[in-house]
Design brief:
11 helices; 434 Repressor (Amino-terminal Domain); Rossmann fold; six-stranded parallel β-sheet; alpha/beta; 12 strands; six-stranded mixed β-sheet
Length: 342
């Protein structure tokens, strides 16, 4: 007779019965995988998926003698925005005696099954994802066995994860509106890849601001780049080959803004007579470039701190609102923007 299993309440015994092994073997395979053969571990993993047994709570109960550990998945370890977010995470983690492990997502995409197995077998307590480019597929059946997860710095509707973020659309709109109030009409947006959600939201803010001022959005004034200094510099070359070059540029981040400033000077433009530039992020170097960069300050440290507090609440089993918590940003006015001269 076929045994019917309630997947919502599957037990270790159900897993053992499904593959004809003992519960002790199931326990070792899930909490001490090095103590069983690869074949046995594979059988047990298949049985947990078949029965719907949630292994996270089993491994959670075996952690008392181990260091409490958080994994932070970052999109690019070279990104200047990551250190401040991680610093906020680390501050709260240290206060609560958690150790923080950091992984660069772009190096894990082809190893997602291995990464998920590490999360489960090595008893990671929680995961902070720093953007939507996560290192595993949401369709992976093992995801239900992962520890609690939160997203920091980017709202991703499809994830259904608790999120700490900023309102990218509103603050992009505000940046363009500030330039418009100074008298600028020919405003460019240098953005990143179209697939990145923050780029999509900031493009919406740019578009709405242009249209609300009664102007038509010109596609040649929207440049897709790659978040780098070189990307900002190359964009300037394209823009000043146009019949009607812009009088102001809004860059998706401070890095591209600095690259744009360098290239503008290199081709003989004079800031601020010929061009105004505004960035996003208020990274440490923004105030030291020449001219000092006007930018939208993103509260990166506080994003990290709030994300870690949210993750701790999830680990402790508290009810969490799945809606994104939005933090405030501020326009930092410096020397790279002024009214158009012509």
């Amino acid at each position: 007779m076929e045994q019917k299993i309630n997947h919502h309440n599957a037990t270790m015994k159900d897993v053992a019965n499904a593959e004809g092994v003992s519960t002790a073997t199931v326990s070792r395979a899930l909490t001490r995988p090095d103590q069983v053969s690869f074949k046995t571990r594979q059988k047990v993993e298949q049985a947990t998926l078949k029965t719907g047994y949630n292994t996270y709570y089993l491994t959670k109960n075996t952690k008392s003698s181990k260091a409490k550990t958080i994994f932070v998945a970052i999109p690019d370890i070279t990104s200047p925005i990551c250190p401040d977010i991680i610093s906020g995470i680390e501050q709260v983690a240290a206060e609560q005696a958690y150790m923080v492990l950091i992984g660069d997502c772009k190096h894990y995409k082809k190893q997602q099954h291995t990464l998920i197995d590490i999360f489960i077998s090595q008893q990671i307590d929680g995961i902070v994802l720093l953007n939507s480019d996560i290192p595993f597929s949401l369709a992976n059946r093992k995801l239900k066995n992962l520890p609690p997860k939160v997203v920091a710095s980017e709202f991703v509707p499809d994830f259904n994860f608790a999120t700490i973020n900023i309102d990218n659309l509103t603050y992009s709109f505000n940046a363009i509106n500030y330039l418009q109030k100074l008298g600028h009409k020919y405003i460019v947006y240098i953005t990143g890849p179209e697939t990145i959600l923050s780029c999509q939201y900031r493009l919406q803010g740019y578009t709405q601001a242009i249209q609300r001022a009664g102007n038509k959005v010109q596609q040649e004034y929207i440049i897709n780049s790659d978040f780098s200094y070189q990307g900002g510099a190359e964009s300037i070359k394209k823009l000043f080959a146009l019949t009607k070059p812009p009088s102001a540029i809004f860059c998706h981040n401070d890095i591209m803004a600095v690259g744009a400033i360098w290239q503008a000077k290199h081709i003989g433009l004079t800031l601020l007579r010929d061009l105004s530039i505004i960035g996003f992020g208020n990274l440490n170097f923004a105030q030291y470039c020449e001219p000092a960069l006007t930018t939208i300050e993103q509260p990166s440290f506080e994003i990290g701190r709030q994300a870690m507090l949210l993750l701790l609440a999830k680990i402790e089993g508290h009810g969490i609102d799945k809606n994104a918590k939005l933090l405030d940003c501020h326009l930092i006015i410096r020397d790279s923007v002024c009214p158009p001269k012509n």
